[in-house]
Amino acid sequence: MSISLGAMIICFLALMVIGLPIAYNLIVTTLVYVLVAGFDPIQMAIKMYGGMNSFSFLAVPFFVLTGQLMLRGGLLESLIKFVNAWFGRFKGAIAIVTIGASLLMGSIVGLAVASAASLGAFLIPMMKKEGYSAPFSAAVMSSASLLGPIMPPSVLMILYCTAVGKTSITGIFMAAVTPAIMIAVLQCMMAHHISKKRNYPSYGKASWAEKVSATKKAIPALLLPVIILGGIFSGIFSITEASGVAVVYSALLAFFVNKSVKLKDIPDMIIEAASTSGLVLVLAGAGTAMAWGIANERVMDMLIGPLSSLPPWVFLLLVNIVMLICGMFMDDYASTVILAPIIAPIAWALGINPLHIGAVFCINLVIGLATPPFGITLFVTSPVAGVKLEETAREALPFLAVTIGVLLLVTFVPQVSLWLPNLMGYTG
User: Tens of pLDDT along 165-210?
Assistant: First the structure.
């Protein structure tokens, strides 16, 4: 190991222990490497700019802004009523509504925290009012919010594809659809099972008139994911263009149809979009610079040699273990910019399909969002429910179990995620 690589590793770990935000950690660590290795610091700046200079990143603020318009524009309520009308007769109705609404919300926004915060504010109090325990209410919302970064369009997947290259954003979106739906269905079944066991209430069967009425009111909101995903998958417009269309469509609904968003709300929504987008951009730039340093040290050559002799299934098992552990201690964006450029090339060298390893990577990181000690969705939902984080984490275990079950299925049966991309002509 060279002195410069050793300095990089020591600096990174030391700053992690101190608790410096990961974006600043990556910048400082890379700067230390540059100085020790004797490179011109301008090289680092060039690499950071290159990591941020991606047209696909324009989609991030637009999708975040779309989520804000959905929340403030009253469109979220119509989605909730729609799901409730069709599934409210089952035991654990509101829990099932929460999972279904999260799936639909994920197909519009693609952010776990946004889903947990926006939906949780509505649905957790509703669950508690209907007699569900507070920890269970928080756990359902925390687990359901994981669907956001899995169901396309996903900010996490955009960041992943930009970080590794050689992977189609549209292709990985397609690869994520089936796993997302499977997770949602299994979470609903688990919620129903637990609710039936604990005798949690249902709403009763809605009449056809009520179902038709709820569906009619939800059609404008339901058309949004159809427009986004349909346009992307059919090739009518790119990811970035789709995000722009989503903003225009949701703005028309929020300002002129529902008339629930005012001009005075615009600055707050823009600030929220800018904050999230800025974080993604800084991480992307810092991660690219650090990946450049790792490449200079020929770390990949040292890793690919020993690991390329492993059977692909053993490597995939190791990836699952490593990523699940990383997800407990680092957020999904940070893990992506640090680890994706290392793991993806090794997987490709082993003959693993780029879309397959991308789907496995992203699902792993999403699970980490709901696992202690730093599961961000647990921190978001627990205060809303008024319970301790440990109580929420305990109740979330059955939902995490089924999510991990789907992860293992996707890992070792590649066609689960690849059949749709293959059908649409995206092979890698």
Answer: 788 888 999 999 999 999 999 999 999 899 889 888 776 677 788 8
Reported as a single tens digit per residue, the pLDDT across 86-117 is 777 777 778 888 888 788 777 666 667 767 77
Question: Which parts of the chain sit beneath pLDDT 50?
Answer: none
Instruction: Give the C-alpha separation, 140 to 127, whole Å.
Output: 10
d(CA 180, CA 161): 18
The reported pLDDT for the residue numbered 263 is 81
Find the DSSP H helices in 235-265: 239-252
| Phi-psi region at 201: left, alpha or beta (left = phi > 0; alpha = psi -120 to 50) | beta
Core vs surface per residue 380-407: b (16+ CB within 10 A) or e: bbbebbebebebbbebbebbbebbbebb
Whether residue 387 contacts residue 182, with contact meaning beta carbons closer than 8 Å, is answered with no
| Separate counts of helices (H) and strands (E) for the chain | 21, 0
How much of the chain is helix, strand and coil, in % rounded to 5?
80, 0, 20
pTM: 0.80
Amino acid letter, residue 31:
L
- Whether 139 and 396 have beta carbons less than 8 Å apart is answered as yes
Q: How far is CA 131 from CA 82, 96, 284, in A?
A: 22, 15, 44
- C-alpha–C-alpha distance, residues 288 and 208, integer Å: 54
Beta strands in 177-256 (DSSP E): none
> CA–CA separation, 59 vs 276, rounded Å?
12
Dump pLDDT digits (tens) for 393-424. 899 999 999 999 999 999 999 999 999 998 88
In this structure, what is the dihedral angle of CA atoms 137, 80, 175, 117, given to the nearest 10 degrees?
A: -50
Q: What is the DSSP letter of 263?
A: G
Q: Give residue 270's Cα distance to chain centre.
A: 21
Q: Using one digit for the tens of pLDDT, what is the confidence trace for 225-235? A: 888 888 888 88
